[in-house]
Amino acid sequence: MKKTCYITTPIYYSSGIVHIGNSYTTIVCDAFARFKRFKGVDTFYLTGMDEHGQKIEEAALKNNKSPQEFVDGIAQYTKELWKKLNITNDDFIQTSELRHTEVVQEMFEKLIEKGDIYLGKYEGDYCVSCESFFTKTQIVKEGCCPDCDKPLRKVQEEGYFLKLKKYEKQLLDFIKENPDFIQPESRKNEVVSFIEQGLEDLCVSRTSFKWGIPVKSNPKHVVYVWVDALSNYITALGYNTKNDELFKKFWLNGDEVYHVVGKDILRFHAVYWPIILMALEIPVRFKLLAHGWVLMRAGKMSKSKGNVIYPLDIVERYGLDALRFFLIKEMPLGNDAIFSYDRFIEVFNNSLVNDLGNLLSRTTAMINKYFDGKLTKPLKKYFDFDKSVEEVVNNTIKVYQDTFDKFHFQAGLNEIWAMISRANKYIDETLPWVLAKDENKKQELNSVLYTLYEVLRLVGLMIYPVTPDTAIKIFEQLNIPEKNRVFENLKYWISENASVSKESLMLFKRLDVEAELKFQEEKNNESLKEELNLPEISIEDFNKIDLRVGKVVECNLVKDSSNLLLFKISLDEKIYQIVSGIAKYYNPNELVNKNIVFVKNLKPCKIKGILSEGMILTATDGKVFEILELKKVENGKVS
Ligand code: ME8
Fold it and tell me: I need a labelling partner for 159 at 20 to 30 A (CA). Which of 67, 85, 306, 399 fits?
């Protein structure tokens, strides 16, 4: 029976589109999944979208879409992006899908029945952006989220609580008994000391918004997004359904299960998730691999700094494999790494163009020139240098298997590149062009080029999980049929037919460092301008917006909503109905009789099933929030 491996990425929030940081996680997991399949392991690779929660509900509203419409659009975009990045995920789960929501509801009910989830009262400081509550001791700056610095909201609600405390000891014992549960080690220590400080029961339901999975037995509550999201790892496998073969195969009876996560979400995966599983009496089968962040020189990527990097921008200019290679090579598991274009271009020119590209083009050119593209398998090795090359190659094969299997891609790639350098040096040591001048040295020359051919074939096999397109180009240059592109052929000096294609192919084209850096700098300036200043518009454009002043005749909180107000506004003897997400800033009664500004000709849409015929204008400086109100004009036009 084949061994199995189940690997997952975090599911990404649908509040925006994924950038190079999230893409890193997905690419690194893809390299791992490809490596496992290459080794003959039955592998299942899952990724997807985390679609519920207030942040997403608000983002949908901002975009004038229903939450479902909004998240479906983002999911579609992300799926297409992963295809473009050559990601080989076996499934893509969206948490708004029925196959997920139904199972989560049952899981929740089971825990209520068992008494591990109970109804209580919660009062605390909540960050919408992180979808997290914070205790007084966690808050560093009064009123601000300790993780993202955004304003905290005071929330008081009836809530369901998960008994974390009950499982504290069981979890600590589990971590002790499974020393490789959390990797790297330093992250494990952080988790252990967090648990040792004592766990408090976790509030696992919300009543302040609707866009979530309703608790089946008490639907005014929705399931806390983290409980909802973490469950994806088993709902996607069909847990607790009739079609649970994948769950049995990859989870219950599986050999290896890995959740790869950024260090920012380690606690949820290392504390809450195993406890949920323990409470459900599902074995904790996974290992956690926590990686660092892709940072910019100025720190975290941020729109306001104009330095968010999106993967397709790089792919379009430098090619997909350059991106995949760079991210995987530059990011050792666990540590942060800085993304900069100067480093990117340096790695591109040195590793891909000089080292790998040159070895392939020199070798294939010489095989074509001296042997009309065909070598014979040599009877022996002729040079002193052959021994040292052989040692390096055999060692690289070993290190490669070991490191790639442990996610230590950087170490593995460094070894492969050391082998490439050794082979380039071998050319300078054996001087094939000198051997070619002597008819009696034909055998030696054949052997030298065969050695180089073999090194390149092995490079192709080994880099396949990281840069699949480049590996395929190498195989095509070396005339290696698909049946031979297999793990079992990771052995040296085994090719019977060592021939190369007549057409030589350039793997990577050298980049002009100065020109590229200038290009990127200008692009960065442009995008900064774009973020801060919207593009210029003409007066005709402005005149297209029909801005009016009307009187609020009625204003009510939308039923089952904590943030939507339904306005009835009178203008020119007609009543306009507008839904606006500003309930947290105003009591509806205080808005009645105010003369407010609204967009009259915005395309009508439905928000929570209610027709909205315009948009209310508001202003904020980040601290204060105000509706645009006029004192004397009651019924008028704004220009
Ligand atoms: O946290 N560098 O979703 P998310 C490296 N929905 N990795 C980065 C990164 C960066 N700059 N920025 C993000 C969530 N990531 C939850 C997860 S899982 C059950 C729910 C990666 O969209 C990293 O893996 O904020 C991080 O943990 C993940 O994207 C979070 O993406």
Answer: 67
Mutational test site, ligand 1, from 11, 17, 19, 24, max ligand atoms within 8 Å of CB: 24
Q: Which residues, in sequence order, are bridge partners of residue 547?
A: 599
Q: Mean pLDDT of residues grouped by 10 in the chain (639 residues)?
A: 96 91 95 98 98 91 91 96 97 98 98 97 82 76 80 86 96 96 91 93 90 97 97 98 98 98 94 98 97 83 72 95 96 84 95 97 97 95 92 98 96 98 97 96 97 98 98 97 97 95 91 91 71 69 92 90 86 91 86 94 80 87 77 89
Distance 439 CA to ligand 1 centre (A): 62
Domains recognised in the chain with CATH numbers:
4-291 (3.40.50.620), 335-499 (1.10.730.10), 539-637 (2.40.50.140)
Which ligand 1 atom minimizes the distance to the CA of 9? Answer: 24
Q: C-alpha angle 297/56/556, rounded to 5°?
A: 135
Q: Ligand 1: residues whose CB is within 6 Å?
A: 10-13, 21-22, 24-25, 50, 229-230, 261-262, 264-265, 293-294, 301
Q: Could you tell which of 7, 11, 12 is best to mutate to test the pocket of ligand 1, judged by most ligand atoms within 8 Å of the CB?
A: 12
- The Cα 420–Cα 463 span in angstroms is 12
> Where are any strands of DSSP class E within 284-336?
287-291, 294-295
| Positive or negative: CA dihedral 170, 176, 180, 183 | positive
Mutate to test the pocket of ligand 1, among 224, 265, 296 (most ligand atoms within 8 A of CB): 265
Residue 10 CA, closest ligand 1 atom number: 18
Nearest CA residue ID for atom 7, ligand 1: 21
Burial class (CB within 10 angstroms; exposed 0-12, middle 13-18, buried 19+) of 257 = buried
Coil, strand, or helix at residue 262?
strand
Reduce the secondary structure of 58-105 to three states and give it as a string: HHHHHCCCCHHHHHHHHHHHHHHHHHHCCCCCCEEEECCCHHHHHHHH
Q: What's the token pair of residue 434?
A: 């000198």
Nearest CA to ligand 1 atom 23: 262
Q: Within 13 A of 273's CA, how many CA atoms are on the CB side?
A: 25
